[in-house]
């Protein structure tokens, strides 16, 4: 096993612990609504969107229309649009892995991919691929196991759907602990709370995501200007020192 594969597997272990449990919860709920292991594997391999898969159970059971399902999918997964924008540079020149990397970008995979540089000896592009691949395998295995357990054990599934919310909280806390700059996290929490008060629990997600993105883009632009100004001042100072040295040498 290569160094890259071992490193990717080790880094993905916390996600494995969460995805196996969450996947089992999804499989149990799916089985409780009359959809067996085939559906669990199909959705986990071809859809692979944890929170949306939980929502999809109600859509399937309630006979929702394609339009309703499409709109709900956009609302639940709109955050991935912003994830994708932030990954443009990281995923540049990652062929032949890029199509799968785009498909398999989940919240937890995003957290692992963005958490610092890989160590020496680890192929960064392959690391992105194997982290994404391992995470999907964990989810699919958990979903299948949950479906089997649900079919034979008859477990009460009340409250299981809260597990995705719990996972998001864990990811947020890990990212908070992993960096000293909490500006983006505070912006996300603040914008979400304001939009929740303004638009209510059923309509705050999209306004919150748009607000967060606009603020972060403005901050990035401002920091870019500050960085360019600092570089220009440094270049000017270096030029002045160089001219002074040349003048001194000429004398």
UniProtKB/TrEMBL annotation:
GO terms for biological process: L-valine transmembrane transport. It comes from the Bacteria. The chain crosses the membrane at residues 12-30, 36-57, 64-85, 127-145, 185-218. Pfam families: AzlC. It is a multi-pass membrane protein. Belongs to the AzlC family. This is AzlC family ABC transporter permease.
